[in-house]
Amino acid sequence: MRWRIWLLEARYQFLGVLREPMFAIPTLLFPLMFYLFFGVVMSGGGASAATPTYLLATYGVFGVMGPAMFGFGAGLALERESGVLILKRTTPMPVSAYFFAKVSTAIAFGAVVVIGIFLVGAHGAGVALYRWQWFALAGVLLAGVIPYCALGLAIGAWSTGRAGVAITNLVFLPMAMLSGLWIPITMLPEPWNGNSSACCRREARSRADSILQKIQRLCTAISGTRR
Q1: What pLDDT does residue 115 have?
Q2: CA dist 204 → 186, 194, 224 (Å)
Q3: Which tens digit of pLDDT belongs to each residue from 133-147?
Q4: Which of 8, 10, 58, 127 has its CA 20 to 30 A from that of 186?
């Protein structure tokens, strides 16, 4: 009986989101359009498939971030402010069914985006992977829905309905840009590319060594004074 409630809530949640074109259309089409432009059109003249393969994974992550963060972040904030959550609390539906419906809807939308990007990459960009690599990449991408849902839950629980979309965008867009999802991370400016990270690690290591040497000299001086 409990599983039937979970499945019914997930079904109605999915249908409700699907009937909102302002959410469903951008969530499903934007990652495909971006990959089609950057992964197929802009990389069409290259002899190597490394760039389309790299962008296949990054835009797959970008595609699962949207429904997870906006479904939980903006969606939860609006439902909490409009009184939908209070109405649901008056019903015998368990709280776990609500979260199951949100997560399963995000996974379903993410799966559609991932399948679409895989088809475009395989037939339009010439991406060639082993069969197990396709399934492994899809599994990793869809498993990534869970932490993004948790992040969206935190945003939706603390923000108001009007501010939910704006706050989610403030978190979503910088994360996607600075983590190298839109362009390779090596093309980012100095503070965020891989070279600067290596320089920062070397600088931090040298400073740590300098601090340790000073501590050792201080300890030596203190032990000499005691003698």
Answers
A1: 93
A2: 21, 15, 30
A3: 899 999 999 998 999
A4: 127
How far is the C-alpha of 160 from the C-alpha of 166, rounded, in Å?
10
Mean pLDDT of the chain: 79
Tokens of 33: 């359009």
Asked whether 141 and 110 are in contact (CB, 8 A), the reply is yes
Instruction: Report which DSSP code applies to 192.
Output: T
pLDDT of 205 reads 52
How far is residue 74's CA from residue 167's CA, in Å, rounded to a whole number? 8
Specify the pLDDT at position 118.
Answer: 92
